[in-house]
Amino acid sequence: PIQDLPINLSLNAGGKYLVFIVTIELFHSFFSEVAGIIPFLNEENKNKKYYLDKELSPTEMLVLNQIFDDKKFNGAHKLYITAKAYEALSLYFGNNNNEQNCPFLDSEANTERIKKAKQIVIDHMAEPPSLQDIANQVGLSLSNLKTGFKHIYGESVFNFLLDYKLEYARKQLLSKEYNVSEISLQVGYSTASHFIAAFKKKYGTTPKQYAMSIN
After folding, report:
1. Nearest 5°: CA angle at 205, between 200 and 208?
2. Does the predicted TM-score (pTM) go above 0.90?
3. How many CA atoms lie within 13 A of 4 on its CB side?
4. For residue 26, which phi and psi values (nearest 5 degrees)?
5. Residue 110 in contact with residue 89, Cβ under 8 Å?
6. Rounded Cα gap, residues 194 and 201, in angstroms
7. Residue 113: how many other CB atoms lie within 10 Å
8. So where are the chain's domains?
9. Of 166, 168, 149, residue with least CA distance to 203
């Protein structure tokens, strides 16, 4: 509301995005009675940027897909889309379980520290530092690192790293530039057998079988 901010998106093939544009006055009216407990609407943070990145629930995804899939461009189309937009916002901001209420992340600085921790994990995926070392590097306690990371990215640091390594390996297989043993070393597995087992658990096939299936 006080300045123009850039929006940078990176989508996978076939990905979709949905943007809700709402005036700040209308948006505040949705929460007028509870604005104080919503981080970016309270008085302390009214002039700060607010960042929240979390995995959507199946119910939230269902509503968004209903918006994407609506092909009935009749007289009620606008009403239907407006109702679904309100429903999506209600579900997104109405989830008040303890795991997602994370006052620690009300601070933009703390959110940036978590994002920096994520980048450290990615940059050193083959030989990742300990969680305590990462926490020290970004200036967080170990507890806040664990809590904040799971809040933003929806999983623990360990699970995020495992998923990232296996997805990186899958893309390397697509390139056909490296064999299985070389890729397993790239992502930090000292023995190819452990890499093969982890890959098969995630993708349901071995790296070799996956590579052979690529046209």
Report:
1. 100
2. no
3. 1
4. -65, -40
5. no
6. 11
7. 21
8. 24-101, 104-154, 159-213
9. 166
Tokens representing 156 are 């623990």
Distance CA 165, CA 198 (A): 10
pLDDT tens digits along 43-58? 555 555 666 667 777 7
The token pair that represents 99 in the structure block: 């795991």
Tokens of 134: 């990462």
Residue 72 burial class via C-beta count within 10 angstroms: exposed 0-12, middle 13-18, buried 19 and up: exposed
Average pLDDT over residues 181-203: 93
Write the burial class of residue 93 (CB in 10 Å: 0-12 exposed, 13-18 middle, 19+ buried): middle
pLDDT at 188 over 50: yes
Each residue of 100-131: pLDDT tens digit? 445 555 567 888 899 999 999 999 999 999 99
Quick one: pLDDT band at residue 99, thresholds 50, 70, 90?
very low
Question: Among 82, 144, 77, which residue's Cα sits nearest to residue 117?
Answer: 144
| Fold annotation for 159-213 | Arc Repressor Mutant, subunit A (1.10.10)
Q: Can you tell me which residue has the tokens 């590579």?
A: 211
pLDDT of residue 136: 96
Distance in angstroms (rounded) separating the CA atoms of residues 87 and 80: 10
Three-state DSSP class for residue 209: helix
Distances (CA, A) of 101 to 6, 159, 198: 27, 21, 33
Q: Which of 84, 89, 98 is nearest to 41 (CA)?
A: 89
